[in-house]
Structures are given as C-alpha cells and as structure tokens.
Amino acid sequence: MGYWDLPEGTDCIGKTWITTKLGTALGLVGSAYHIVAFQPDSALVALQRATSTTVTMATMGAIFGMATCLSAQAREAPDDPLNYFIGGCASGIFLGARTHSAMTGTSACLGLGTLAFFTKVGKMEGWKIAGPPEL
C-alpha cells in the first residue's frame, strides 16, 4: 500500500511509517553518493556520515508524515494543501535545529513547505511532470 492510497487524516501511524521508510531510502542513497564524491579518511568516518545522514532524513520523513496527518485531523480539512505545507515546514525546522542554524531552518521550512504544498495541489489537479502530453 502506498502513501496516496491511504485517505488523508487517517491512519497517521501508517502514513508516518511510509514517509519514514522513504526518508530512510533517500538518506541511504544520498549518503552513498556523498561518500563516493567526498572520500572519507577511514571506514569509521564513512559509517558515521552514512548513519548521520540516513537518520536525519528518516526523522524528517517521520516528522513530515506525522505533522501532515495531525494537522489534517486538527484542522478538520483533510484534503487541504496547507497540511502539506505544515508538514514540510516542520521537517525544515528540524533540519535547522539539526544544523544549529536559524537561517537553514527558515529556508528549509519555506522550501520544503512550498514543495509539499505544490505536490499536493498537483496530485489533486492531476498535474504531470513527465510522460506523453495529453492532446
């Protein structure tokens, strides 16, 4: 079962689990590319980098999933794209706290929130990024 198969504002644990797994996968792939691009001095340093990146991305996924679902329940507006902005912003705030930078947190909040907002709007309106054009 995928993320979009579950109704909005329901099964918060299930949605959070899915976004956590997605964040973990993105963290593993991203850390692998980072380790290849910037060779560490030892295997221990490589393991620390991979672990740190993967845990950060998994946590951001969990925060996004839970914040999106809980805001949909609290606001009683399950299909409102603002819920996705709230989830993306919450993930960005965590990233700012993780890096000890208010500017990073603010930028990530606005960037991830806007990206999530337009992802939801695009899903609702049937936008297509790739594929054959419809005539």
UniProtKB/TrEMBL annotation:
Quote the cellular component terms of the Gene Ontology held in the record.
mitochondrial inner membrane; respiratory chain complex I
At the top level, the lineage of the source is: Eukaryota
Alphabetical GO biological process terms: mitochondrial electron transport, NADH to ubiquinone
Q: Where in the cell is it found?
A: Mitochondrion inner membrane
Membrane topology note: Multi-pass membrane protein
Membrane-crossing residues?
Answer: none
Q: What keywords is this UniProt entry annotated with?
A: Membrane, Mitochondrion, Mitochondrion inner membrane, Transmembrane, Transmembrane helix
Family per record: Belongs to the complex I NDUFA11 subunit family.
What is the name attached to this protein's record? NADH dehydrogenase [ubiquinone] 1 alpha subcomplex subunit 11
Q: Which organism is it from?
A: Seriola lalandi dorsalis
